[in-house]
Amino acid sequence: MHDDRRGPLAVPQLDDDDMAALLAALAGGSSRVEHCQLKNRAVWIKRYQRLGARIGQRLQWLASRLTGVTILRPAPLLDPQGMLDREVRQINSFSAAGFKTPQILYRGTTALVLSHLGLPVSKQMGALRDKDADGHDALLVRCAAELGRLHAAGLCHGRPHPRDFIIDDGEFCFLDFEEEPAAVMPLAMAQARDVWLLFLQIASRALKPETPDRAFVAWKLAAPAETAVALSQIMPFFARLLPLARFLLRIQNGQDLVRFVAATDYLTSATQSQS
């Protein structure tokens, strides 16, 4: 049951005892995201009242203005109510298109209570890393394939990452809709940004050398042609930053730099060879 109206929303699946426990957790907790165990189910409380200075987003916006590079634009800076509304809107859009998302169990003015769907793909990968390379990398390929299906439906995740995906009994689920790049750039470009962000994980975490190719083919099999074109258009910008990134890697072996180089190297080559 979803509702885009402002104000509290409760659903009948929670009995009086569960509602009392939930309201106590809402009133007494302070974590941005909090796990809450009720009598017969687990839920997640997501709060929006403490957003910090968001300096990174402001610098990203400034960089996009100075360089004129659309792909760098951050999602609009919103107040807590606006961020909550955006997440509800995205959940509803994904659900309406047939994709599984958390169910909204309770909606307040600065918090949502969401159903628990299962173990994130990132944790499933962690359990497989040292004992099943094929299974580990199959999860990365599945993430790419499902992102392609999402793009084919005219949607964009905004921050795709194995920690924001769940596979439960074979069913793929999407989480965390805090970004909305399609609000500040063309949809095809926002979807291309999705691909680059996901490949920051795929290209750096794959255990087998053929996995990035398999993942790219799986994404492209379903993805719109215009998104593939947009991806080939944005990669030259990132590729121009590779020499600087490699130089910085010689000074400090940071994981963000490793992911940037791996993803940009791979996608630059992949888009050139398939253009």
Q: How would you sum up this structure, described in words?
A:
With 275 residues, this protein is of the alpha+beta class. It has two domains: 9-115, 2-Layer Sandwich (Phosphorylase Kinase, domain 1); 121-273. 53% of the residues lie in helices and 11% in strands. The strands form two sheets. A five-stranded antiparallel sheet has the order 1-4-5-3-2, with helices on one face. It has a two-stranded antiparallel ribbon with strand order 6-7. α6 packs across α10.
Report the helical percentage. 40-55%
Mean pLDDT: 86
Our count of domains comes out at 2
* Strand segment tally: 7
- The number of helices is 10
N-to-C series of helices and strands:
EHEEHHEEHHEEHHHHH
Strand content: 5-15%
> Radius of gyration in whole Å, from Cα?
20 Å
Biggest sheet descriptor:
5 strands, antiparallel
- Give the strand line-up of the largest sheet: 1-4-5-3-2
Low-confidence stretches: 1-10
Q: How would you describe the shape?
A: globular
First-residue to last-residue Cα separation: 44 Å
Structural class: alpha+beta
InterPro entries: Kinase-like_dom_sf (IPR011009)
Organism: Ensifer oleiphilus
Protein name: Serine/threonine protein phosphatase
Please tag this protein with its features:
275 residues, alpha+beta, Phosphorylase Kinase, domain 1, 5-stranded antiparallel β-sheet, two-stranded antiparallel ribbon, 53% helix
